[in-house]
UniProtKB/TrEMBL annotation:
<feature type="domain" description="Ig-like">
    <location>
        <begin position="32"/>
        <end position="119"/>
    </location>
</feature>
<keyword id="KW-0393">Immunoglobulin domain</keyword>
<dbReference type="InterPro" id="IPR036179">
    <property type="entry name" value="Ig-like_dom_sf"/>
</dbReference>
<dbReference type="InterPro" id="IPR007110">
    <property type="entry name" value="Ig-like_dom"/>
</dbReference>
<keyword id="KW-0732">Signal</keyword>
<dbReference type="InterPro" id="IPR013783">
    <property type="entry name" value="Ig-like_fold"/>
</dbReference>
<feature type="signal peptide">
    <location>
        <begin position="1"/>
        <end position="28"/>
    </location>
</feature>
<keyword id="KW-0472">Membrane</keyword>
<keyword id="KW-0325">Glycoprotein</keyword>
<dbReference type="GO" id="GO:0005911">
    <property type="term" value="C:cell-cell junction"/>
</dbReference>
<dbReference type="GO" id="GO:0098609">
    <property type="term" value="P:cell-cell adhesion"/>
</dbReference>
<dbReference type="InterPro" id="IPR051275">
    <property type="entry name" value="Cell_adhesion_signaling"/>
</dbReference>
<dbReference type="Pfam" id="PF08205">
    <property type="entry name" value="C2-set_2"/>
</dbReference>
<dbReference type="GO" id="GO:0005886">
    <property type="term" value="C:plasma membrane"/>
</dbReference>
<keyword id="KW-1015">Disulfide bond</keyword>
<protein>
    <recommendedName>
        <fullName>Ig-like domain-containing protein</fullName>
    </recommendedName>
</protein>
<dbReference type="GO" id="GO:0050839">
    <property type="term" value="F:cell adhesion molecule binding"/>
</dbReference>
Length: 157
């Protein structure tokens, strides 16, 4: 019986040591904060646009990437250390054109702690120089009983 107890003790000790190592490693890992996107309020055709995604915290520091239509378009990021943990930034730049009009850009951050990456999206609306700001119609008159109208309209920007 003594040999069983002494044989059991080393196995139990190894188990508790491995469990303690796992707990320490798990405690050292933490998920990153939610991505924060900064972008211009108004985007006009042919403007140089920079979308910035910033993620604070996380252990290990997260990777940060931009996606468009579920396709990765930029995986480059910089990491700086602050008193609150890492700050990871990915900037994506492009010249605004019709291809970006009504597109959704997604920023994802992941450090392997959570089951899925954290993400935030931004909807891009590109204004052209022909965007209608004001429509003025004059000389409106009824042509028949079905309320068809004849008018002259002027578009101003």
């Amino acid at each position: 019986m003594d040999s069983t107890v002494s044989g059991f003790a080393p196995r139990a000790s190894r188990f508790f040591i491995l469990l303690a190592i796992f707990i320490i490693q798990a405690a050292a890992q933490s998920p990153p904060g939610a991505p924060i996107i900064t972008a211009p309020q108004t985007i006009k055709r042919n403007d140089q646009i920079t979308l910035t995604c910033t993620v604070k915290g996380g252990s290990p520091p997260p990777s940060v990437k931009w996606l468009r239509d579920d396709i990765v378009i930029d995986e480059t990021f910089t990491t700086t250390q602050s008193s609150d943990g890492p700050i990871v930034v990915n900037t994506y730049s492009f010249v605004a054109d019709d291809e970006e009009h009504l597109e959704v850009f997604e920023c994802q951050s992941d450090n392997g702690v959570l089951q899925n990456p954290l993400s935030r999206t931004i909807f891009v609306e590109v204004w052209s120089k022909y965007a209608v700001k004001h429509l003025t119609c004059v000389n409106m008159s009824t042509l028949d009983l079905f309320f068809y109208y004849k008018s002259q309209c002027k578009i101003t920007q």
